[in-house]
Structure formats: C-alpha cells, structure tokens
Description:
By secondary structure, the protein is α+β, with helices and mostly antiparallel strands. The chain has 3 helices and 6 strands.
Amino acid sequence: MKRIVAVIKPFRLDDVKDALMDIGISGMSICEVRGHGRQKGHTELYRGAEYTVDFVPKTEVSVVVEEEQVDAAIEAIVSAARTGKVGDGKIFVQPVERVIRIRTGEEDIDALN
C-alpha cells in the first residue's frame, strides 16, 4: 500500500476529488495548508500599505491506495490539478506498512474499502 499526498491549488480540489472518484478512490483526507516553493509568495497592497504574503494557501489531499492503483491515482491528480502555471503543487508517494479500521478491526486492504 502507498500513501499519496498531493499539495494543490485550493480551487482545483473539486476537480481532483472527482477525478479520484472516477477511478474508484473515494476515501481521502483534506487539509488546508500554507506554503511556498519557487512561487515564494507575493506582494499585496492593502489600504496603501504594501505587504508580503510569504506562504500561499494550498490544499493537501491524502489517499491510501493499493500498489496497483498508484499510477492511475497520480495520473488523475496531475490531470485534474495542472493549470500550467507556477504553484500547481507537488505529489509525494510514501509506503504504508499497516492500516486498521478502528470500528471493525479490519486490516490492510480490507480496511481501505
């Protein structure tokens, strides 16, 4: 099993969620995060004063999938999240050793479905 964490632009969340659901991935966690990479924030003007916004709002989508679903999930996320502009985000893929459904005690693949 693998955990896929995608940090995307917030307005692309619905498209990413729909793309993942279209390939059969319905369980996901969402977090509002802030950060920067090459984008390095931007300068804004408020009431005549200029200030720098260092960390840009992003959305973090996290899913745990079977090994066979990893490439399809990545393709779905990339196609739904890409705008072609700086700040589209990143995808991280991490190994998952064990999953337990708290309610039933089911483990691993059984706990994902």
